[in-house]
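During the first year of the project, the team set up a workflow for recording each protein of interest as an amino acid sequence followed immediately by a discrete structure-token representation. This format lets reviewers and collaborators read both layers of information side by side without switching files. As required by the reporting guidelines, we include two representative entries from the current panel. The first entry is reproduced here exactly as it appears in our internal archive.
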Amino acid sequence: MTKWKNNAFYGFAEKNNAPRTVKDLKIISGGKILENNKTVGDCRSPLYDVPGGVTTMHVVVSQPPQEKEMKLKSDPKQQKCVCVIL
């Protein structure tokens, strides 16, 4: 994860959309999301995981919010309420 943190993992060095923290990643196995305090070995099930077999997992990377979007959300001028009665 150190390499990932430095954006040098899997060619993310040239891009600015790499995950910033581990919390931006979700690992899914058997339809269940792996919690942060558990290891991959903890989520194995004797029903579908064969010893010595292949385990299929999915990794979902959350897109970090863009700085422009964050600025718009925090701008007090953007929070307006309008009501029109005709």
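The second entry, processed by the same pipeline in the following quarter, appears below.
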Amino acid sequence: MAVIGVQDHFTGQAINALVSLKPGNDVVETPHTEFKAQMRKEIGPFATPKAIFIVDDLPKTRSGKIMRRIL
């Protein structure tokens, strides 16, 4: 998972999450509403992402770190 800030007309900046699922997990089994509910429970409503995007893979460096500048 990677979390990035994006421009928002209302608040100035909003949180978006990019989620890469493990092989065998299906988006249908875990809909976006369940992701948001779990995040709201764990980190609170103020830090819950405005949008959640399911991606196949996140770009990584040779050392395995996420390349945030590409997102």
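For the second entry, the following points were noted during internal review. The beta strands are 2-8, 12-20, 51-55. Residues 2-70 form a domain with the GMP Synthetase; Chain A, domain 3 fold (CATH 3.30.300.30). Both points are flagged for discussion at the upcoming steering committee meeting.
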